[in-house]
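Researcher: I'd like a candidate sequence for this fold, 151 residues long. If you have to choose between options at a position, lean toward the conservative one.
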């Protein structure tokens, strides 16, 4: 038997560092899962577009964009989105809100190159749609992971 008196006080971590580390790990883990989902969805959408006749031929050099190219570029820019989210988590009082503005702005900017590529209308339309596929996966997922009670 222990004769100590329990006062009912729960002692938490000495600082908010543990909570911050947990949020960081959750954000990165969720981000990488979302990256895999965005990469798979974009590659599948590109394969379906190709199956219905989109050639993905860009006049500059006349080369056709391979399916692996969609996967690589989607994965790369999704990881860049995670890096932006991590930076905002560390530096911003309202990381979710700032991330949404940043990510939506960068997505809008990413729509310019397909419009300037000189590709035919079906390829251009497909490329525009394929820019939006990973954005619809990554942006809400990362923003939700960044959300705090004050956002």
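Model: Candidate sequence:
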């Amino acid at each position: 038997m222990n004769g100590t008196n329990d006062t009912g006080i729960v002692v938490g971590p000495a600082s908010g560092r543990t909570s911050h580390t947990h949020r960081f790990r959750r954000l990165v883990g969720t981000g990488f899962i979302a990256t895999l989902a965005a990469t798979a969805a974009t590659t599948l959408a590109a394969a379906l577009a190709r199956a219905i006749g989109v050639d993905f031929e860009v006049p500059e050099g006349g080369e056709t964009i391979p399916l692996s190219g969609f996967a690589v570029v989607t994965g790369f820019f999704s990881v860049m989105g995670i890096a932006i989210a991590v930076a905002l988590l560390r530096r911003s009082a309202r990381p979710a809100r700032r991330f949404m503005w940043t990510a939506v702005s960068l997505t809008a900017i990413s729509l310019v190159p397909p419009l300037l590529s000189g590709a035919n209308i079906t390829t251009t339309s497909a490329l525009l749609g394929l820019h939006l596929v990973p954005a619809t996966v990554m942006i809400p997922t990362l923003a939700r992971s960044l959300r705090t009670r004050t956002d």
